[in-house]
Each structure stands twice: as structure tokens, then as C-alpha cells.
Amino acid sequence: MAEAYIIDAVRSPVGRRGGSLSGIHPADLGAHSLRALVDRVGIDPGAIDDVIIGATDTIGGQAGNVGRSALLVAGYPEHVPGVTIDRQCGSSQQAVHFAAQAVMSGTNDLVVAGGLQNMSQLPISSAMSAGEAYGFTTPFAESPGWQARYPNQEISQFVGAEMIAEKWNLSREEMEQFALQSHQRAAVAQDEGRFDNEIVPLNGLTQDEGVRRDTSLERMAGLQTLSPGGRLTAAVASQISDASSAMLIAGERAVKEHGLTPRARIHHISVRGDSPVMMLSAPIPATKYALERTGMSIDDIDLFEVNEAFAPVVMAWMKETGAPSEKVNVNGGGIALGHPIGATGTRLMATLLNELERTGGRYGLQTMCEGGGLANVTIIERL
Fold first, then answer.
1. Does the active-site annotation cover 267?
2. Are 91 and 97 in contact (CB under 8 A)?
3. Which of 371, 366, 361, 235 is nearest to 306 (CA)?
4. Half-sphere exposure at residue 83, Cβ-oriented, CA atoms within 13 angstroms
5. Is 32 part of the annotated catalytic residue set?
6. What is the number of other CB atoms lying within 10 angstroms of the CB of residue 244?
7. Would you call 347 helix, strand, or coil by DSSP?
8. Which of 321, 345, 329 is nearest to 181 (CA)?
9. FRET partner for 374 with CA separation of 20 to 30 A, picked from 95, 135, 146, 155?
10. Residue pLDDT, tens place only, 362-375
11. What percent of the chain has pLDDT over 90?
């Protein structure tokens, strides 16, 4: 089968809710990474076959196929197509998968995959709330078919995270220690410039804005739980954020034709599902499936990026897979750096790619929980 190569990956800094990037229109936010990508690679954007952008809550400024709007704002020629896709938190990771599949099939030679999200302007579940305002139901509550299969089940990421914490017997104290580690690792990564090669400054912001260097276990212990009697607090959840990210995927013909230098190869792509009620547990079976498909073991992977939607998601995943903490989210994760939903997938992959290069690792595995009980897995090989 033909190969799909990662040529380069860039991203904006991640802005915190109401922070430095909050006032930027989503199309302009996405355009920032799209423009920076072609500028850095030095390629004519007119040669790009397609632009695939992940985004959720596509209403307001994120409506109307914002992926197409963003590439036009970025100055790409009008003949370049664009599409917006939604696989919830895994939207831009799925964009990479679609781009790789297009290249590997020979359908396209050069594809941009990326994502964008301005959560300050359009909070999570804005699309659901907008539907309710017009008298429409939520995606689950009043579907007879859904209720027949999942009767009287509350569908919520918070409920799912609590279920994981309970099933894997994760205490509040353990989860807060994990969250503290995320901030500490992110602060070290910033101080050592580990993100510098992937971040393209925007609106005066040069670093991710959410890292809390002054947090402590004592401060976390004083927070109220998200639900009465629960274990989760805001301290162990990912931050609401604004950002964009983009990655150039090329086939062998495009590499030769345009004189490109690949940084990595797409070794494996897959997606699997699990309980939509627990919702956030799918990275566990998805990772096991990916390793079985590739004939690899957890020990063959040098680095892991597992999205920190909530601390128990990653902690349960580590318990089940046996992946060592020292290889997982070594530069911090969504708890410290933020989780701009549509942009997170390619943000994580940019970080994974740069960290493999920094440490000399060969294989990196990325996975993330997604609404509906889904999880994508991507394994990349550094070249």
C-alpha cells in the first residue's frame, strides 16, 4: 500500500477561555495555522488537493463549512476545496485519518488536515442548546429508538468520567496528583522550549495560556466536586480553550514532485467504539485493537499522547494498557494546556512529532476519547 507522510505540523498557541484568542473569528483562527503551514513548508497552496478541518458546534462563526471559509481567509486559491468534519473531540485526528486514506488510496497527493475551535465564543454543546431554543430535542432524550436501547441513561461526559473513576477505583487525591503533574510537565516543556517548533504566535500570544504554575494539591483540595458525592472537580478536567492546528499529509508522488522532506510516516490509523453511556472509555479497546492490527506491543511505542479530557480517562487507560507514566503526555496535556475540541487532535500530533524528534524515539501512539463512546488511534513513525 502507498505511504502517507507527515511533512510538517503547526498550531496556534492555545488560548484560555476569555483570553488572548477569544475575540478572533473562528475562520480567522483556523486560517492562521493554514497560512503558517504552507509558508513554512514553502509550497504553493494551489497544489493542495483538499483541506479537511475538524470542528464541533458548527453554528455562528463556525457554521457554513468553516473549513472552506478558513482556507479562503488564509489566501488559498479558490479552486482548493475544503470540508468540515465532526467526530467530537477526535475531529482533527479523524481529519488526519481521512487525509492519510486519501493519499494512501491514490485519490489525492497532497492534503491538509487540521482543526479549529473558539470555545470562548461558542461553548461546548452550543449546537445542542441552539436546537433546544428552537424547540428541537437533544440528540438522545426523546429518540424512541435510543431510549429503547439505552433506557433512562443520562448521557454526559461528566457522568462518564465519574463512572470511569468509580470502575477503576481512582480516588480524588490520585486524580489531583495526576492533574498537578500535567501542569508541572507543561511548565517544564514551556521553559525548555519544547513547543517552540510547533507554535506560531498569534495576537501577541506566544505560549499556551492555560498552564497554572502556582497550582497545588492544597488548592485543588479546596474545590467543590462537579456533582454531589462525586470525585471529579474542575482541577482534573481539561480546560475550555481556543486554538487551531494544521498538518500537511503527502504521498510519495507529491514528495518527489515538490521536493518535500517528510518528518514522519503514518504507520497505523483506526477508530473503535465502546459504551456511549460511559462515553470516555473507548481509548482502551481502541489501543488494544491498534496494537493487535499492527502486531506491536505497548513496549514498542516510545511515546504516547492520550488526551486529558479528564484525569481518569488517561489513568484508567494506563492501568489497562500497562503504558508507563514516564512515556505518557510527557509535556502535559489538556488539563494544563487546554482542549480546544476541534483543534486538539492535530495539536496533540504536532506535539508528539516534535517530542519524538527531540528524544530520538521511533514510534508514537495518539488516542483520545470522543463523544458517542469513540476513540481514534494513530501510530506515527519518525523518519
1. no
2. no
3. 366
4. 12
5. no
6. 36
7. helix
8. 329
9. 135
10. 999 999 999 999 99
11. 91
